[in-house]
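Allow me, if you will, to draw on your knowledge of protein folds for a short while. I have a record of one protein: its chain in single-letter code and its fold written as C-alpha cells. I remain grateful for any guidance, and I place the record below:
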Amino acid sequence: MKRSTVRVIAGAAFALLLVGLVPMAHAAGPAGMKLYAFSSGGLTVPRSLLASGTGSQQVQVPVGMFLVKHPKGTFVFDTGNNDRIINDPSYWGPFVKALNVVRTPDVAIDNWLQKAGISAADVTYVAVGHMHLDHGGNVCKFTNAIFFVQKDEIRNAAWPDPGSAGPYIPGDVACLRSDIGQPLPNKHTMMMLDGDWDVFGDGSVVLKKFPGHTPGSQMAVVRLPRTGTVILTSDNVYFAENITKNLLPDVALAWSPNGIMAAYNYIRVMQASEGASFMTAHDLDGPAAKAMHSHEPQVFE
C-alpha cells in the first residue's frame, strides 16, 4: 500500500474518532431567545471552599438563578434560596448565620421574574443543577411547570448518602409530594431523568448529566442566537479558575472529584468545538454577581 494511501486512511480514521469525541456543532437558538441571570441574595464563604488553594479569605458570592425565554416557552435553571428564609430564618437552621445570608425582600424570586416580565405561573419548565438549599429552594413556586431533576439527585435530596445530607433542606423536597391520600406521589409534574434531556426539542437548551458536586448534578447547555453557546454549570464549577487551573473545590463539596473533572473537560471540549462560554452560580465576577450588585437582571441574546 502506498504511503499516501495510508495517510488518507489514517486521516479519515482520525476524523471519525473526532466525530465520536467532539460534539457536532449546533445551530444557534431561535430568534428572540434570551437568557436572564439573577441572584437570590448572597452567601459568605471561604474562597478556598470553592477553589482549593486560593486562600481562606471570606468572600460574598451570589446565588445564581437563570431564566430562558424561548418561542416555545420559558425555562428556569436553578431556583435559589427558598424565599421563606426572608421572613423565617429558622427554616434554614444554623445555615442563615453560618453563611451570613443576604435575605432582603428584593432578592425574592418573584421580584426577579417580574423584572423579566413574567410570573412563576408563566414558567413552562424548571430544572435544578442539584437540590442543595441554594439551588432547589423555590422549586415548588412553579405550580404550572414541568420539573426536570436527575433521579439520583432527588433520591439523594430525600435520603442522602452518609456525609452528604448537610446542604439539603427537607422542606424543599417534601413540598414536591402530594398531600396525604392523593393517588399520585408528586404534587407537581416531574420528570426524573437518568441522563441528558433536550428541553425544547431543538438543541437550544439541553440538560447534561454530570454527577460531580452531587450524585445527580446536571448542567444546562444554552445556545443563544447572538451570544452563542453558554453552559450553565450550577456547582460543578464555581469560578473561572476552577477550569483554567484545574482547581477542585474542598472535598466537602466534591461528591465525585473525577465527575467534576469530567465536567471541566466537557466544558473545554465545548469551548473548542462551539466557542462556548460558561456561567456559574457563584462566580464573583459573573453575571449573577453583577445582578446581585446592580439589582437588575443581566440579559443575553
Q: What stands out?
A: The chain has one domain: 29-292. Residues 1-24 have pLDDT under 50 and may be disordered. The longest helix spans residues 3-21. The domain at 29-292 is CATH 3.60.15.10 (Metallo-beta-lactamase; Chain A).
